[in-house]
Fold this protein.
Amino acid sequence: MVNTEYLKIPKDRVGVAIGKNGKIKHQLEIITKTELKIDSDTGDIAISSTDETDDPLATWKARYMIKAIGRGFNPDIALTLEDDEMILEIINLQDYVGKSKKALVRQKGRIIGKNGRTRQIMHDMLDVEISIYGKTVSLIGKIENIQMAREAIEMILDGSRQKTVYAYLEKMHDKLKRQEFDELVNGKPDRKDILREDLDTDENFTDAEKDYNKDAISEEDEDEDEFEEVPETLWLIFFSLIFLVKYSPPTNLIFFYLNYSYFLIVNFYLE
């Protein structure tokens, strides 16, 4: 059964998708084992599976690569989407700046930065490819890196100063490097292991550990019960004694000593 995907790219990107003497088109067909039909006049493209297609996602991957070319990426960068860990993210700038052409140009300039500095720093810090084309900003990279890059771009669009964005990028760069080092030393963590570490149930305890936990809980309950056995009246008497000492005249000292003795006797009885 033939599976076909359709898409349309800007006319000025059709030539790039085809390449000199059809080189890029042919390369895409070989990598994905699909057949491409490109209308140079309209930019409409049909991607169909062939008898050689062995990947059920082949037509989708080819569409993904061509879409990246259509969003301004160099074909060599677009072809990295063959890797399952790489994704394409497209940000529509009009969702943030509206239809104002002036605002669109200004925000594109802020993302690019003076002499392309901001875009280059983002690329170097997060290892993400960035294309600013038309009304979109497109990203190619690993999913976590893409999320960080998108956050940085949204900070710019929300009006954050470049200095603040650079500090965020540096922080994320350090985080990625630590993760890379940990994976190099310990290997990539298994998702099942991560989930199991978060579980704290009786299934993970030995019988001895269960008994220990029960004893510890019962001891805590006993401590709480002992504290609760002291009547509130004793505390009232105690504070009353303090009041008498501070404010009562000497003639009431006998009354004070009687109450204090009562307090000691009752407290001794409870112990």
